[in-house]
Write a structure and sequence with these properties.
The protein is of the alpha+beta class. It is 30% helix and 42% strand. It contains four helices and seven strands, in the order E-H-E-E-H-E-H-E-E-H-E.
Length: 139
């Protein structure tokens, strides 16, 4: 099961992240997880939100360059080697991980966001190997 992630390109200057967060807040979009990376000139914000379509639309209306990206949210047992086992499964199916970031840790389980090179193939591989995927509604 894939879920939607909001990806936003922003100038790397003071206050821009706050501006984006203000737009989401003002439009009632709750952030469940985010990842921010930067270079000298720009940043890339990735957001898992409770209303991704509404968030993207609000950001676009406010003049930000945003898009929706299909990603997986994977549930992982909180134990040594669990992530490596999932990554090995993905690799064995000849699927590349384009990026990933932590989402949450809840008791004995963790969740990560994963973007793969082949969504359909990855979805089938996760189902085949019993790797649980979540939607933002399930978080």
């Amino acid at each position: 099961m894939v879920t939607k992630q909001i990806s936003v390109f922003i100038e790397n200057r003071k206050g821009r992240l706050g501006d984006i967060l203000d737009v989401l807040k003002e439009n009632g979009v709750n952030i469940l997880s985010l990842s921010l990376s930067d270079t000298a000139e720009y940043g890339l914000l990735r957001v898992i939100a409770d209303k991704p379509q509404a968030g993207k639309a609000a950001l676009t209306s406010a003049g930000f360059s945003g898009m929706l990206t299909d990603v997986f949210i994977l549930k992982i047992p909180h134990e040594p080697g669990a992530l490596q086992n999932i990554l090995r499964t993905i690799s064995d199916e000849e699927i590349n991980v384009e990026y990933m970031y932590g989402l949450s840790v809840d008791g004995g389980e963790a969740s990560i966001v994963v973007k793969t090179s082949d969504l359909e193939k990855a979805d089938k591989a996760f189902a085949k190997h019993g790797i649980e995927t979540l939607s933002y509604e399930q978080l």
